[in-house]
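Standup notes
- DV: blocked on the single-chain target, sequence here:
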Amino acid sequence: MAQQLISKTCDFVKHKLDGAEAGHDWFHVERVWKITKIIAHHEVCDTLVVELSALLHDIADPKFHAGDETLALKISSEFLEREGVDPDTIEKVLFIIKNISFKNRGELPADLPIELKIVQDADRLDAIGAIGIARTFNFGGFKNNLMYHPDIPPKLNISKDEYKKNSGTTINHFYEKLLLLKDLMHTAKARELASERHAFMVSFLQQFYREWRVDQ
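- DV (later): unblocked, structure below
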């Protein structure tokens, strides 16, 4: 029964995200789902909640829907209710979808359920490393942002509203978010996986600056 529900959820998400921006499409969701299962294997958790949350976490990313943070909850709730999922499971999944985002980290309760920690770790892992670099530049191109400008510094410690409105350079996004994620991982397995990905980003930035300064 659970596997049938997961299969239906995969099909639903693939259909809903058809044509989505490449950094937030089905393949992103699939990677997060796979990483989630790897991390969950090392934790005591509700695996159904974890997998459903991973699959539905980007069903309607607010930045592609005029900042609407309720749409993903509505779509997910309606889908899960149609599939006859019990209310307690739906509530847990919606809690994760609502609270997974990096920009919402300042609003989280102190005692997070392990299921949220797992899915959040998996989503953050897909935001760093080689895939994270590719996704960042893809989104920067999608928004027509500058790759880099030596006179535009990154904006650190900004509020949620400032983060949502920020349209700085793609390189600045590394300092505003990506390089912070390694130390925000909750689980031991995620911290292990994040270490290599973080080091790759640091190496990439060093090479980027060397190539940018062609005359030096």
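- Follow-up: The mean pLDDT is 92.
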